Amino acid sequence: MKNVLLKGDWGISMKIQPNIPVFQVLGGKVPLTLFINLVSLLASIPIGLVFGAFAAIKKNTMTDHGISLFVILFISIPSFIYATLLQYFAAYKFGWFPITYTVSDMASVKYLSLFLPTLSLALDPMAKVARYMRAELIESLNSEYILLARTKGFTRSKAIFRHAIRNSCIPVLNIVVPMFANVLGGSLVVESIFAIPGMGSLMIKSINANDHYLTIAILLIYSLVSLMTVLVVDLLYAVIDPRVRMGGKKQ
């Protein structure tokens, strides 16, 4: 660990690629894994917010019950099950997407082969954001400041979009970090299912082969990415919640 932090020496691979530096073994695998995980997380947040807000506004209607049903399903079933089902039906049965990751000079083919694994990883965080947003928005709609906004002449839609939704988004940030950790964990299996040459599938191989230096390096990268996510989330608080900025100015 001392050599990694101070000298940038990650050691050498002992089993996967013997006597090759770990940094070279990782090569282009890090960007590929980060791309899949970040896209799945960034796509799931706005979609989950929309569905959660829609369910809260349509509380106790068929729309709300339908969204809640899918939310429960997406949370209950692990991502590798969705990956297997999507691979079989969307790729093998109907041929809409490549069955596995495809290396091609055409960017469209390459990114198309990443769609299904990204979707598999996005379903769980999307459902969690929707569930959290629904609960927070329902609470906001019943709060006193929304009633005050209505008495001042705000229409219901204006009060919802101008005040309730923004205030409801703030607590959602609390679950972004654990969600990203879950996405990183899910990518270990999903990458293997779709034969994606990323860090996830490489980590499984390194564990099975007892390639300790390579395993430690991948875990360290995952830890650093998680810490960066915490930093970004903290910075977003100041963007979404004006009280954070005003508190800093007063001090």
Provide an overview of this structure.
With 251 residues, the chain is an all-alpha fold. It has a single domain (2-250), classed as MetI-like (MetI-like fold, Orthogonal Bundle), CATH 1.10.3720. The chain is built from 13 helices and 2 strands; from the N terminus they run αββαααααααααααα. It has helices at residues 2-7, 22-26, 29-57, 62-76, 79-93, 107-112, 115-141, 144-151, 156-172, 176-193, 199-208, 212-240, 242-250; strands spanning 12-13, 20-21. A two-stranded antiparallel sheet has the order 1-2. It is elongated and about 75 Å long. The relative contact order is 0.15.
Task: Please summarize the sheet with the most strands.
Answer: 2 strands, antiparallel
Question: What does the overall shape look like?
Answer: elongated
Which ranges are low-confidence, i.e. pLDDT below 50, for 5 or more consecutive residues? Answer: none
Tally of contiguous helical segments? 13
- How do the helices and strands follow one another from N- to C-terminus? HEEHHHHHHHHHHHH
Structural class: mainly alpha
Q: In which range does the helix fraction lie?
A: over 70%
Q: What order do the strands of the largest sheet run in, or round the barrel if closed?
A: 1-2
Distance between the termini: 39 Å
Whole-number total of structural domains:
1
CATH architecture classification name: Orthogonal Bundle
For the secondary structure, the number of strands is: 2
On the 0 to 100 scale, the average pLDDT is 83
